[in-house]
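Appendix B, record 7
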Amino acid sequence: MVSDIDDNFPDEANESSSDEGIDNSSLNGSSLAEKHAQEQAQKNLLARKRIDELREKKRLKDLLDDSEDW
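Structure tokens (predicted):
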């Protein structure tokens, strides 16, 4: 029986090590996903800013266009 108990200790240690490895990889995966999400959010912000600038430019052009007044 003593040998059975001794045999269980290394298995439990190996299981906890493998669990930690899974946790670390899932943390790295979530960090990578968060990084990707932040990059996408930054791209979206820049695109939205550019769209707003173009709309404002078009609005101002329409206001200054007096061809319909003649």
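Remarks on this record: Helices lie at 2-64. The first helix runs from residue 2 to 64.
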